[in-house]
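Worked example

This section walks through a single chain of length 155. The input is the sequence exactly as stored; nothing has been trimmed or padded.
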Amino acid sequence: MSREIVVAVAGESGSPRTVRLGAYLDAGAAELAESEANAWIKSLRHAVVDGRPFRERFVHRGDSLWWFAELYLHKRRVIVEILRAVLSLEALIERERPRRLTLASGGRVIRIIGPQIAARHGVEWRVSRRWTTEGLRLRLSVVIGRALFLVRVFS
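Given that input, the structure is written out below as tokens.
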């Protein structure tokens, strides 16, 4: 599971205050993230890969590998994590109207989507100095390498 997301919010007054991003996710938004993640994962079975639905495209010994992919996505909960982060950050920006947000702690998801959402709202996005892009690039290259390997194996 992901680490707690903490950001420093700097408004017009200038002095930043530290907040937990999860505090901006109300019960309705949390439920929406769960249901939308479930719907999105279920919709993947119909994604077309090489002209065929995912469910039919990836088969091993007559069995669809879709079920393994679906179970994996539900178990890892990364789609829920993405949607919760998006909804929380949107709520924070709407409520606080920050000039700048600085990520103090959090996982991969917020490091990727945070800058995009902030830019869409015209909010400056920073990351505390202890986070380096070099480590992120290395991990990303490992993930991409694994994904390419799996595509070759199951094609």
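What to look for: The first strand starts at residue 6 and ends at 10.
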